[in-house]
């Protein structure tokens, strides 16, 4: 069985890695003043953070189902199955779009997978699936490995300004108000597919230190982990943090990634995250 791997742009897998592993990407979009830009295609993260300083915050949109259908129909010429890995169904309809498109296409078996998360932590699933697919592992066995990964995956992130999440409906009004009034820098995570506060911390530095404690609770077992530091236009600080963490955790492989236009719209510039899973 030959299996294709599809993910969406919010995984923010670098183009060279997507090409290396043959991962297909469906873009989500940001909309500035009725102008639609497909992230990772029409607009880069760097361009996005420049634009938002000069324009109103954009809205975001999921891919049209027709794009999924067209891609799946194209893939059926070469593949027997597709594993389609997407950002959490609790914050976007993208996963459901893949489900619906899979039901509309005959001639190829589509296995939609809800990562229940986003950004490069979602990308970990796609990379793992692509490596296994290249080895000829059956699609259903790949799905079992992804479910196993889900048990060890952790991700935490902190935002500078809760108003973006509140405005986009990804965090409740009450939580946003409390955070802004008390100058709290809440540590956030995904729970039951939605973004919720994990702990309330007074400063970004304390939040980052707390995430390191959480990583240590897993990584100090001595087992091998893969982790990613994710930033919203804070590359210098992210690189510095990566260097610190590499010296603390020699058994953890650290990558660097970013929050691109769609996720950056909801988190805001200055956000920082850390995610990991057991290899």
UniProtKB/TrEMBL annotation:
Superkingdom classification of source: Bacteria
Keywords on record: Lipid-binding
Transport as UniProt keyword: no
GO MF annotation terms: lipid binding
A Pfam family that the UniProt record links to this protein: DegV
Name the UniProt record assigns to this protein: DegV domain-containing protein
Biological source species: Mesobacillus subterraneus
